[in-house]
Amino acid sequence: MRTLILGGTGEARQLAHIASGERGFDIVSSLAGRVRDPLLPEGEVRIGGFGGAAGLREWLAANGIESVVDATHPFAATITANAAAAARDAGVPLLHLRRPGWSEGPGDRWIRVPDSAAAARALPELGERVFLTIGRQGVGAFAGLARQWFLIRAIDPPETELPPRHEVLLARGPFTVEEESRLLASRRIDVLVTKDSGGDRTEAKLAAARAAHLPVVVIDRPPLPLGAEFVETVADAWEWLRARASGVR
Ligand code: NAP
Description:
It is a single chain. By secondary structure, the protein is α/β, with parallel strands linked by helices. It folds into 2 domains: about 1-100 and about 225-249, Rossmann fold; about 110-220, Rossmann fold (3-Layer(aba) Sandwich). The chain is built from 7 helices and 12 strands.
């Protein structure tokens, strides 16, 4: 069964790794090409946009794709919507693999907000030294905050306008709680801003913030398309693929 995995996450790489080793599966993974030096999944990989939902639909047909797994990041809402539209129009089964979000535990002080702009509005109440860990996209929403100082962590340098007082730290997780605690202390951070990305690669910052009694502004996920079929684990996505493959053969 020829399957397109829309990737850019650890889960997408794990699924490609499992399926590539199995007879009867022909996997192609797709990356957007955002990161300069991406972690590549096993097997065939294509890089770059498809040209919207219509481009993706054409690509599915031209490449004989029989199933699609959207294993993109929970905040990659445009490609997720495009995948839903393209798969529906092409009559190809689609599954969204979406890891669970994080949840607040004892000792946490979280402020949930709907988007980056709301996170920026919440900050003046919360502190002056901000650790911004939302990747490089969305950082522009904080550009107008002149009173705060920002530690901006991203894999590649942000290309949008940045707040006037900042330090950019280029790093790719996973990070340990000890490393995150050291960072919070060395930069005298008052407040952390994160997306509700979920997963264990970048969750150490939440434990470090809890230990330091710091407030955390958590940006909520965009919703999945209406009626979308989704699972939360790689194992469940693999089960789905196997079931589709036995139907296809
Ligand atoms: P997005 O806003 O949902 O998508 C914007 C456009 O980028 C899409 O319309 C599509 O272009 C292209 N695109 C996105 N993902 C693609 C993929 N896997 N393969 C081919 N084209 C893709 O996406 P994003 O938030 O910029 O994320 C881009 C990539 O980074 C995704 O693969 C995602 O899994 C990964 N990522 C995102 C985040 C995040 O916080 N957003 C974090 C970690 C990793 P066309 O319309 O031309 O097809």
